[in-house]
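Lab notebook, bench 4. We co-purified these components, and the gel suggests they stay together. Before we commit to crystallization screens, I want a quick structural picture of the whole thing.
Request: model the full complex, all chains together.
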Amino acid sequence: MKTRQVVLQRRPVGLPKVEDFAVREADVPEPGEGEVLVGNVCMSVDPYMRGRMVDRKSYAAPFQMDEALTGGAIGKVLQSNDPDLPEGAYVDSHYGWREAFVAKGSRLRPLGELQAPASAYLGVLGMPGMTAYVGLLDVGSLQEGETVFVSGAAGAVGSAVGQIAKIKGCTAIGSAGSAEKVRHLTQDLGFDHAFDYHDGHLERHIRAGAPDGVDVYFDNVGGDHLQAALNCMRPGGRLPLCGAIAQYNATAPVPGPNNLAIAIGMGLTLKGFIVSSFEHLRADFIRDMTAWVTSGRMQYRETVFDGLEKAPEAFIGLFTGANTGKMVVNL
Amino acid sequence: MKTRQVVLQRRPVGLPKVEDFAVREADVPEPGEGEVLVGNVCMSVDPYMRGRMVDRKSYAAPFQMDEALTGGAIGKVLQSNDPDLPEGAYVDSHYGWREAFVAKGSRLRPLGELQAPASAYLGVLGMPGMTAYVGLLDVGSLQEGETVFVSGAAGAVGSAVGQIAKIKGCTAIGSAGSAEKVRHLTQDLGFDHAFDYHDGHLERHIRAGAPDGVDVYFDNVGGDHLQAALNCMRPGGRLPLCGAIAQYNATAPVPGPNNLAIAIGMGLTLKGFIVSSFEHLRADFIRDMTAWVTSGRMQYRETVFDGLEKAPEAFIGLFTGANTGKMVVNL
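Here is the predicted assembly.
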């Protein structure tokens, strides 16, 4: 059997280009003892993948040239030598960027009976949803009645952050990159205040939504957003550092916030985190988020591209504001 | 009765000048009901005071022009209308920068029987010592066997940080501003590794002392020190942000660390703090630090200026590297 898979054929410099990627054909072996053959239903593209396209040491190893990229994917078991994973079972895996693969069943996470469309397990019920959940509630120690500001609020993580804040009885403020996204945040998702960051008056917009200051700033963006947020924090504020999409494509070091010393007098905590360090909270996340999604308290939107060959375009779109909610590639 | 006191006669721009200050004479009233007359024995100058010389909102109100400056001082009760504070009692107060004052006894902290020379209560047994103690053990959550890097290590706070680390069974690395200070850290205070930061190779020096990385970076300096330390942290590292002396005299905003995004993948926590938020740990601090000082496990050094008129020069010396250990003005 053959599969198609996406490889890097050139390391991107700055904003990635479609030509940095290539679709290649590869063999899929027969599943051996304890292995299963999986056909991917949909795959994820996420901003963190940009860091792995650079050849440097980080928390995740760099992607190798001409090898299949990896990332989250939801697939269906087509052929099984693992009694725990019958044919037809849905699994969550890191074998994205390809249409089919063979792997040990023990390396896959079975999803059980789906509570939502498969693609939701790439977003609100998957890694981005769990990132929002642990980042806001555990890293950010959110308390009822507090004020939350989240950047990249129309993205997969940000839109969950704002809605969890509302579910927890907090005020939610979000920044996004277009008037349509801003409308979506306040009209559809229940944000108390949202704004388009393009006019540059970040601090004024944050203060408009948080006249008494921000307790938790959930940072997906870094750069000017982090600097503006630091100026608007309340004493004892927490800043979960989740992403820095503003600088993922930078070709030279980007100066940090020039007001970090505010953290001293205000007793602020900036705490970087990656979701994989919070597996101990997965059961809590699945329980709460599934309940919120099935009851309709948690809305989610997807921006969908069709076909493996569109995956590079979908990935690049993360940096140009092409997505509202989770960016998904259907396979 | 008259006292002499130091006032600001001009707001400093950049590095303060002696001419920004003036010594003025003022009346000291008779102590009323519940009040005491105190003669100051010695007073403190501290880097944080620089921030209060700027007319902007911060955690401490700005100093007003032509009014006596305030700051830590140790004094002796000369005349008392407070039965809890007999004549001859030593008190810790914020009425520094003057030779004598009258205040409610309830606003002063009695020191009881001195366990060390009075000036030690401005340093290792006072605010800087407690800053080191709570910053390293509570904010920094130091664990036995970890590696600590502290900048400004020959200062009042830094020299206590390194020695507490050693007492707690940790490795201590420090940066300082001269070869003599570096010698003092390793020869007298027991630091495992120390270096003069002037050659600029901060990261190389840190790694020389911490080949496996740093668990706790205690930041007194900010700027290039913070940036270099971020590159040397171990996963889960903590960075208590205590001071940013490198930029206290800056006349324009100073760019922050260009590598703050490292905190995300490494799960680092940067936590600003001021010692006044940790009064609940004062009893622990007094108990532990008094034992360490009286047993000789905690060394301390002072740089002493004599006479109130020398206080501005002593203060300015904090920013030019004039002090090893606590900068004290004897009155």
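The radius of gyration of chain A is 20 Å. Worth comparing against the SEC data before the next meeting. Residues 127-139 of chain A form the longest helix (13 residues).
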